[in-house]
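User: Show me an example of a complex going from sequences to structure tokens.

Assistant: Sure. Here are the input components:
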Amino acid sequence: MIKALNLTKTYGRTTVLNISSLEIGAGESFGLVGNNGAGKTTFFSLITDLIKATSGEVRSKDKNVYLSNHWKEYTGSFLDESFLIDFLSPEEYFEFIGSLHSLSKEEVNRKLEKYADFFNGEIMGKKKFIRDLSKGNQKKVGIIGALFFEPELLILDEPFPHLDPTSVIRLKKIIKETSSKGTAVLISSHDLNHVTEVCERIAVLEKGIILHDIKTSSNTLKELEAYFTPEEE
Amino acid sequence: MIASLLKQNLIRIRRSPEFQKRLATNIILGILISISMLNFLYVSINLASLLRKTPGIDPIKIMNEAAFIFFPADFILRLIFQKYRSSAVRPYLILNIPRKKIVQLMLIKTGQSLLNLIPAFVFLPFAISELSRHYSFFSVSAWFLAIYSVSVFNAYLANYAKIKFRLKPVLTVLITGLALLFIAASIFFLPISSGIQAGVMNSVLNYPYLLIVPIIGAIAMYGLNYRLIYFNLFAESDLQGEKTSASREKELKSSFSFLSSIGATGKFILLEIKMIMRNKRPKPLIFMSFIMVFYGLIFYNQKIHSEYFNVFIASFMTGVFVFSYGIIIFGWESTYFGMIMTGDIDFKTYLRSKYYFMAGFTTLLFLIMTFYLFLGVEIYLTISALFLFNIGISPFIILGMATYNKMKYRLDEGMYSQQGRGTQQYLGSLIVLAIQIGIIFALRLFLTIHQTLLITGIIGAAGIAAHNYSISLIEKLFYKNKYSMIEGFRKS
């Protein structure tokens, strides 16, 4: 699905990302963990062609994302609030995204039905614009907007903060379901618990370099915790 | 404390990406300003001796009258250019800094403007070179300080109007409009020769203690601002969410439903219309554009029969929307640019929708302008030729320039806000205006006015016919510049 080859991104003299080779298969659920400034968002921005690589390339289905727009047809992503059109109502927003994937209004509504629990009655039919929703609810709109049209690749940057505990549990379920239907899922998170629960494979990113790349097992959480615990303690 | 806050403010300006990226424009602008300042200085120094050579003219009287042209001009300039940014002090609100200090800081910052230099360049040299020969030092100082105090008064009056506009837009527009009308009326209908204006300033020279009047005025205006900001500093930041719920929204869909039936292009135009109608900042621009349609009435009615002037007015009326809206056409979408970039959107269709929207709206304005036929065929032909040019050529130059605009443009700011605006944009609009006027003037050197207009119209029509080609050129530029746009728009 995704291949990163000799990928680097440099700002001035600082290299913020340096991945010599990384491959993420179709249907794989891949978690990226790392401290602030480790390069997680940079990596996701490169996959979605929001920034230009200093060298190397990202290939999505074997097509360089920088040279082809093909990836947009099957990729759903939510990285930050710039993915929300905040003067639309949530209904209009979903309809707009649906229309980009040639879904009719009815089809969009049908696909959204299964997220009614997650929305908790606070989003649809409230006659509010997205900008009038709370931060958590805005995030829900963004996340569902990225996945309801059943993309083959889903990219979420830090999906868990701002959500209430019930919503976090529901979101994890939604992500797992999406993944089990064959969608490749890329998630970044600070929360080791959540990632180990959702992802089959986890990579640790530090200062732009991938240090660990492991299949999730019962030991993973302990390994990760040990890794992130400061030495002096 | 104020000093350290002001210092922090300087650091903020110096480190802002706008300042660094626009260094070149800033330098050019700085040079232009210096040149005009030197001009003022030269004229002012030599004015007295020039005027003295002309018999029957009293230089002091002339300068006293000039002061009364300066006052309204200064106010209008301040209304347009003076900056008021509450966002800059927002971080201080939650720190252990007394509210009093924050308000003072904002007001001092408001007072800092290049416009403050004008009286020093225009009136001070004259005061020193001419007035001091006839009046005491005390009188001359009072005269100059009186002018300065009115300027300070203007600064805070303009600021007051701007804040009020955010709080109560309709009322403020009405009051400001009436005030401006009053000023215009007093300039045009109170003939300068009546001597009233000169008399006022003259009395300051004769009775220097009258200086107290403008000083009290300026202090009172400062006090009014202080009170207003003091009590609205929080309210203002909370203002955004309140008035905007979808329940108040009129159903846009029904009136524009034909757009969604014309495919992807229509879809984006519909989104554009929603963006305009539902946000505080773009909305007034539409009303302004409709008002501008009648701009020509002010001038075409006069007995000025200059074809150049006609061209200028027509160019402005038919182009103002493209110039002002188009130059930030991507900036309008900066808050959700990530979505546009990663959504399954064909950029050619997207750019085409931008073009159709600008051309379509301009066409609507042009249709309203049909009434200019009553003022003469000549005038209407001029408008038509410029209209064709402004939908056939200008939109593409503007679209191309707009891809270089990297500043995030917040949609919830007020209409007068300078957030996200820069000299680059003003210069861009001016350049496009200059290009078309330049072409017409150049043609006019060799041809009759009718031939010139005909060719201008043909160029415009050719541009419309070739719009697909132009759009593919813009697309290339868009691909080249999109990364810097994304990066700029992501910074807040």
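The lines above are the inputs; the final block is the predicted structure for all two components together. The first helix of chain B runs from residue 2 to 15.
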